[in-house]
Design brief:
By secondary structure, the protein is an alpha/beta fold. The protein has a single domain (11-131), classed as 3-Layer(aba) Sandwich (Rossmann fold). Helix content is 43%, strand content 18%.
Amino acid sequence: MAEGAKTDRVVRILMVEDDSHIGRIIELSLSVLGMPYEFASALSAEEGLEYWQNEPFDLLLTDYNLRGMNGLKLITHLKEQGVTVPMVLITAYDTPQLAREAQQVGVDAYIPKPFFVDDMIEHIRRLLPTSERAINDTNSA
């Protein structure tokens, strides 16, 4: 973070999940993050890419099994465009092969379903800069 940067910057989170009920549960659970954030939800990878083109996000949460392009292909596509923000893949199709593919692509967190919401929140907290980390980064600049 650059010197003098604001530490209360709003974090932008994009959730790509074709099950609106799961997306809503995840959206509601983010209220315990302890940092200001904006949340956007897309029902497909293609819709998520449209959102991303309009204004990039600080974190991507995506399901693996989506209509059209799957979540792993979405992550690959964004990384090929030079996107470097943390990306989380959530899947009910947990296999050793998918876990390896996710690792090879550079997924920052791989979360198999079913999962505890608290565990997902902890993954997100580790991936996003906290105000304390931002203050330390500013002080060391």
